[in-house]
Amino acid sequence: MAESNFIDYVKIYCRSGKGGRGSTHFRREKYIPKGGPDGGNGGNGGDVILRGNRNMWTLLHLKYQRHILAGHGEGGSRRMSSGKSGESKVIDVPCGTVAYDAETGEYLCDVTEDGQEVTLLKGGRGGLGNTRFKTPTNQAPRYAQPGEPYQERKVIFELKVLADVGLVGFPNAGKSTLLSVVSAAKPKIANYPFTTLEPKIGIVGYRDYKSFVMADIPGIIEGASEGKGLGLRFLRHIERNSLLLFMVEADAGDIHQEYRILLNELANYNPELLDKRRVLAISKSDMLDEELMEALAADLPDIPHIFISSVTGYNIAALKDLLWNELNANGEYKKTFESMTHRNLDIRTIEFEDDDDIPEDDDDEENWDDDDDFDADFYYGDGEEFEEK
Questions:
Q1: H or E segment at 268?
Q2: Exposed site from 10, 143, 233, 354, fewest CB < 10 Å?
Q3: Of 115, 125, 105, whose CA–CA distance to 21 is shortest?
Q4: Which helix (H) or strand (E) segment is 265 a member of?
Q5: Hey, CA dihedral for 221, 227, 229, 235, is it positive or negative?
Q6: Strand 89-94's sheet: what is its strand order?
Q7: How far is CA 85 from the centre of its chain?
């Protein structure tokens, strides 16, 4: 079986650039016996920046690029010339990417909008040259600042799919079939559990050229919040959804009980999921008649519900209306993922390929201009001694 291109976890090593060293050069020109200090400042080190890109949907490109290294700043030089700043590294990631510290699991930042930039690691500032330390009482400073060191960190990127409606249900509840009917998505559909092994996204067209995004995640089973099945790995993808659409089969033994099991798994995983709006869809209702639907409706949870059939198209248009009305329940359609609270990552539950190789820093700092021929007696006179700071 070919390896999937959908990568939602990746661990990489990031390092910003260090600042360049300031120069201690002195001006030396013909007919100018005491030119004074003219050492320039060092350049700033490059930053490591995260940038949201709406054209990306996976972290696959980072799976094979494990080391992100920004450029170091160059040292200052003569004639008060500042060193060149190091090149910053921009990491393009899909919208919905969250960054965690790989050593502690601490939450660092997240990127939710296209073009949004977040500085992950700040480059070191360049050191000041000896020109900046010249004073009336110290006209020939023989020292300059070194550049600030770089920052380094191993980072885990986690992708949480951004969607308006998230499908929640047991395996074989008809989630993939519904997504294929209401959108142009083509998820795998088969008559056995866990045909969906990774999240699928579709754009659902609505009236007057309006649309919303629907996401299908792998089926949840009882105990998913404890690691059973595939639920634990993919439950995080519904944290970003504005509305949860629970799907239960019409031939289930107890629809209300199955809904409670699904809701309980979400609560155990993240109690904040209970604050999201919920809709219940009873799938495969083409096998029911009107009388049986009325009997089942009497024992359904106290949330908006609807009987549908993806195969025959029964109530599909009404389902779109219901979802759109729930998304606009507050009078204006808006996403709610900005208000979510991020928890620290439990790194013990995630496995990565062994990659402890950290690249060596080959910068030898020989690119800064020092004045080794400085004659202290020429500037200070005999018997004067310079005090190093």
A1: helix 255-269
A2: 354
A3: 125
A4: helix 255-269
A5: positive
A6: 89-94, 48-53, 117-121
A7: 27
Task: Decide if 314 contacts 286 (C-beta within 8 A).
Answer: yes
C-beta of residue 81 within 8 angstroms of C-beta of residue 52:
no
Q: Is the dihedral of CA 129, 130, 136, 138 positive or negative?
A: positive
Q: What is the dihedral of CA 130, 131, 136, 139, to 10 degrees?
A: 60
Q: Which two tokens stand for residue 326?
A: 């729930």
Q: pLDDT by residue for the chain (389 residues), tens digit each?
A: 345 566 778 889 999 999 988 888 888 777 777 778 888 888 899 999 999 998 887 888 888 888 999 999 888 888 888 888 899 999 999 888 889 888 888 888 888 888 899 999 999 998 888 888 888 888 788 888 888 899 999 998 988 777 788 888 888 778 888 888 888 877 767 665 556 666 777 888 888 888 888 888 776 766 555 555 555 566 777 777 888 899 888 888 788 888 888 888 888 877 878 888 889 988 888 887 888 888 888 888 888 888 988 888 888 899 988 988 888 876 555 554 445 566 666 665 565 565 556 677 666 554 445 555 445 444 444 434 333 33
